[in-house]
Amino acid sequence: MELLDSILTGLRNTSAPEAVSVVTGLLYSILAVRRTRWCWVAGGISSGILVVLAWHAKLPMQACLQAYYVGMAVYGFWHWSQDEGAAKAVTTWPLRAHLISWGAIVALSVLTSRYLASETQAAWPLLDSLTTWGSLLATWLTAQVKLENWLYWIVFDAISVFLFVAQGLMFVALLMLLYLVIASIGFVSWSRSRRAVAPSS
Questions:
Q1: Domain count across the chain
Q2: 73 vs 124: CA distance, rounded Å
Q3: Across 44-163, where does the E strand assignment appear?
Q4: Is the pLDDT assigned to residue 201 strictly greater than 50?
Q5: Which of these, 164, 157, 155, 159, lies nearest to 178 by C-alpha position?
Q6: pLDDT tens per residue across span 108-131
Q7: Which of 15, 67, 108, 126 is at a distance of 20 to 30 A from 61, taking alpha carbons?
Q8: How many Cβ atoms sit within 10 Å of the Cβ of residue 67?
Q9: Other beta carbons within 10 Å of 82
Q10: For the whole model, what pTM was predicted?
Q11: Which of 149, 136, 172 is nearest to 22 (CA)?
Q12: Which domain holds residue 56?
């Protein structure tokens, strides 16, 4: 009950920018599942607002991550516009690429968390770093229409829920929770699309 009361209080205290960020963020995820380029416009707006919110919440790596999302929104819109009128084909990434990427994510997270812990007032240095580096990869995989992007989002959105609840951004935490659901739906939807195009692969 205490957690529920805390969440309800946080929702009542939600600012207008945070609410706009949540709505446009949800729109991004829904449109991404449908593989329409307009998801990147909604995502860019949401992330632009979250840059400021995360910085004020003492989550510097999250703020940097959101700034990266803004840049990726521009790239994603351009890349998905190359075949205007047709949804991009869903492809996968080889296991070796995933293993190398995870090694890099862990190594970078350890390095940046040590810096944040000693040089800043970051609230959760390691988790903040881990979600940032992991989400950088997940965003790139989304732009490249790789199926596994949704699995990455499930993991890092779950961690983000904890981070934002701990820092009092309940509406953003709710957004991350909804992202978890949408990411699961996205994985199923993209998997079906891939099997329909290449049933033997």
A1: 1
A2: 26
A3: none
A4: no
A5: 157
A6: 999 999 988 888 777 788 888 898
A7: 15
A8: 16
A9: 9
A10: 0.75
A11: 172
A12: 2-197
